[in-house]
Amino acid sequence: MKTKHWPIAAMVAALAVTAGILVFTGCEDEPNTDISSYLDQNPYESSGRVNPSIADLKMVPEQASAATVGQEIEFRVDEGRSPFTWTVANHDAGHMHVSADTRHAIYKVERLLPNQVIARDVQGRYGVAEITAAAAGALKIIPSSITLTATNAADAAALDGHIINFRVDGGVEPYGPWMVSDPQLGTIDPNTGVYIVNTDDGEGENIVSISDSAGSVATATVRTDLP
Q: Which candidate, 180, 177, 181, places its Cα nearest to that of 190?
């Protein structure tokens, strides 16, 4: 009787098929291995990724512009399975207030910077909305220059305590504080920009300044000319 020899390649293929059948059968016998259960038990592992090109939840709006600090922008998710979790890519730029149904949330602008709003459902699907920052104008102080002139002692006395209201325009909020270069010529409220002239210590030029969160600095001048 002759012994039949199987080709080595055929034997390897047969063993691979048998092993695959055994593994597949074992998976079927395990409880809680349906797709929904698996997604519930294994949150989306790439949760740190916020690539809009592969996000599959529809966000409304998909893009919004941050124009002022304190602005509130409402977002909602039209698809997916609740409850949803919301987050942002840059927590310094803004934060989220989530509604009770978790399908709606409000983004509050903290700084005029680009950001992403990200919503995820319980199955790990996510959507991304882009926040763009509106271009800010140049930082400046209004008025930019004031000259106060006294021709006699009475006029000089009248100027003492004179109030000037400065305000800031442009730049990136938040601002401040307001500062002066020479407090002997006049003082300024660091929060409000209210300047009070002082003529007791002579005349001269005082520089008023303020900065914004982008690092820009604006200046204005107050000059007092006394007799």
A: 177
